Amino acid sequence: MAGYDSQLGLVSSASSRHGAMPLLHGCVVPELAAKSHLHQANRLTTAVCFSVLVLPALTSAACTVSPGLGAAVEGGLSLALSSLVNRRCSAVAHRSAHVAAIGGAMAAMVASGYTTRVIGGIGARGGRATLLPQLDDAMGECIDKAARAIKPHLAMHRSLAYMAEAA
Which Gene3D superfamilies does the UniProt record give (predicted)? Predict the structure, then answer.
């Protein structure tokens, strides 16, 4: 969950890992990657309390959307915060956010456990990540690791066709 101000930047966050992900409209959504609901509750409480301190400055609220109780609470709090200040609330598909963080144009196939899914093309700036259905978040973590490993290579070869042909 994130509170974002267009001038101040990220003003409140409930993220345990601050891997910020750019969205089409310029907000930032950090990934919520907690291991327990209790830990999530503590972080969400801190984020909401800080948000109240900067309430007049908030221009938007955002969250990643994924299955589970923690994500439902996070989504509800983000919606409540945005409604409180009459601002938009942005929801991003959790796994799409993983891929959007990579940036650049690419094609990739990632295997996770017993599932294999193909990730569609991603525009360099302001593009969309297209993912087929997935069964677990291990794929998202795998995408993150792969992105860190191939990012230098992506800088040299931005062509989606070239990457697909090379694969």
Answer: 3.30.420.40
**Quick check: 76 pLDDT over 70?**
yes
Q: How confident is the model at residue 100 (pLDDT cuts 50, 70, 90)?
A: low
Name residue, tokens 């345990």. Answer: 16
The tokens of 157 are what? Answer: 């070869």
pLDDT (0 to 100) of residue 83:
78
> What is the spatial distance between Cα 74 and Cα 77, in angstroms, rounded to a whole number?
5
**Structural domain boundaries in the chain:** 2-94, 102-166
**Contact call for residues 163 and 157 (beta carbons, < 8 A):** yes
Cα–Cα distances in angstroms (integers) from residue 156 to residues 81, 124, 151, 152, 153, in the given order: 42, 13, 9, 7, 5
Q: Extract the tokens encoding 106.
A: 């690419």
Strands 60-65 and 88-93, bridge-based pairing: parallel
Burial class (CB in 10 A: 0-12, 13-18, 19+), 69: exposed
Compute the distance between CA of residue 23 and CA of residue 29 in angstroms, rounded to an integer.
8
Q: How confident is the model at residue 80 (pLDDT cuts 50, 70, 90)?
A: confident
What's the pLDDT band for 163 if we cut at 50, 70, 90? very low
